[in-house]
Structure formats: C-alpha cells, structure tokens
C-alpha cells in the first residue's frame, strides 16, 4: 500500500536536529523523498507497522508530529506535482 | 473535495523566504494547517483551480515545488496523526 508520510520535527535545539536527521534517514530506507519532509512509501502492512514503530520511537511526541496518509490503490491518480524536481538528498541543503 | 497540499520552498535567499510566507498565507486562506508545510483544504473544484493558479504564480518553479494529493471522499479514514498537535500559526516558530 502507498503511504504518504509527512513530519514536523522541532529543530530549535540540537536534539531536535538529531531527531530530524534520524526520521529522514529512516524514511529514506523505506520510500521515496518527494519533498524535504514528505515521503511516499510503498509498504506491505507489516512493514508499515515496523516503520511506524521506528519513527514513533525517534520523535518527541510533545514537540514533533508525524502524519500518515493511506493513498490507496489508485494513488498515482491522486498525486500532482508542480515545480522543482523531487528532492532526494537527505543531508542536502534544507529546502522547506 | 479534500486536497492535501505540501510544499517545499527554497529559502536560501530573502526572495525565497518571501515566497514561503506568501505560499503559507495563501494556503491558510483555503484550509487547515496540519504541519508547517502541509495543509488540508476542503475545496470545491473551482476553488481548487483558483488556489492552484494563485500558488503557482507565487512559487519559483525552478527552486520550489508543490504537491497536491486528492484524498477523495473517505479522506478521514486515510489520515493518522501522531505526536504534537497540528500547527496553525503561519508566522510562528519554524517547525520542520
């Protein structure tokens, strides 16, 4: 199933910056980075459970958030992209 | 229809920072901010066309990107949120 994952990680301190890197790295392992904090991940249900557990163990739930959008079988028809190409470099220039 | 809008605006210069503010402000007019660069907008088809035109006139398509996800009628069942509450303040602390 296609799951869109978006996150906000509060990077006002070094711990937050570390969490942001860890969340991004984990998402890179499972899917395609389409924007800086937006990933599209084609996952088996068991993988999704695993990824959720991993991400939720990284974030600080008081400061950060994760959103999952189940895009369903027709996900390709649901997506439209405008502008610069997808960003793939997890450690590259911060593009918000 | 429910449209999820995500954006990356390159803020390495002042023009980019201005574009980011303008994109955020425009999205606030049409929907609910659920993360810093993620909005859920319940739109009539004509409104969606208008919003797209407005956003695409603001961004620099060489540097920035917009993605639209049509979440369909059952959008509430497609969304899962974990962690800190949705962010609503368009000018607040930058939360990535």
From TrEMBL, chains A, B:
<dbReference type="GO" id="GO:0051607">
    <property type="term" value="P:defense response to virus"/>
</dbReference>
<dbReference type="GO" id="GO:0004521">
    <property type="term" value="F:RNA endonuclease activity"/>
</dbReference>
<comment type="function">
    <text>CRISPR (clustered regularly interspaced short palindromic repeat), is an adaptive immune system that provides protection against mobile genetic elements (viruses, transposable elements and conjugative plasmids). CRISPR clusters contain sequences complementary to antecedent mobile elements and target invading nucleic acids. CRISPR clusters are transcribed and processed into CRISPR RNA (crRNA). Functions as a ssRNA-specific endoribonuclease. Involved in the integration of spacer DNA into the CRISPR cassette.</text>
</comment>
<keyword id="KW-0479">Metal-binding</keyword>
<keyword id="KW-0051">Antiviral defense</keyword>
<keyword id="KW-0540">Nuclease</keyword>
<dbReference type="InterPro" id="IPR021127">
    <property type="entry name" value="CRISPR_associated_Cas2"/>
</dbReference>
<dbReference type="InterPro" id="IPR019199">
    <property type="entry name" value="Virulence_VapD/CRISPR_Cas2"/>
</dbReference>
<keyword id="KW-0255">Endonuclease</keyword>
<keyword id="KW-0460">Magnesium</keyword>
<comment type="subunit">
    <text>Homodimer, forms a heterotetramer with a Cas1 homodimer.</text>
</comment>
<protein>
    <recommendedName>
        <fullName>CRISPR-associated endoribonuclease Cas2</fullName>
        <ecNumber>3.1.-.-</ecNumber>
    </recommendedName>
</protein>
<dbReference type="Pfam" id="PF09827">
    <property type="entry name" value="CRISPR_Cas2"/>
</dbReference>
<feature type="binding site">
    <location>
        <position position="8"/>
    </location>
    <ligand>
        <name>Mg(2+)</name>
    </ligand>
</feature>
<dbReference type="GO" id="GO:0016787">
    <property type="term" value="F:hydrolase activity"/>
</dbReference>
<dbReference type="GO" id="GO:0043571">
    <property type="term" value="P:maintenance of CRISPR repeat elements"/>
</dbReference>
<comment type="similarity">
    <text>Belongs to the CRISPR-associated endoribonuclease Cas2 protein family.</text>
</comment>
<dbReference type="GO" id="GO:0046872">
    <property type="term" value="F:metal ion binding"/>
</dbReference>
<keyword id="KW-0378">Hydrolase</keyword>
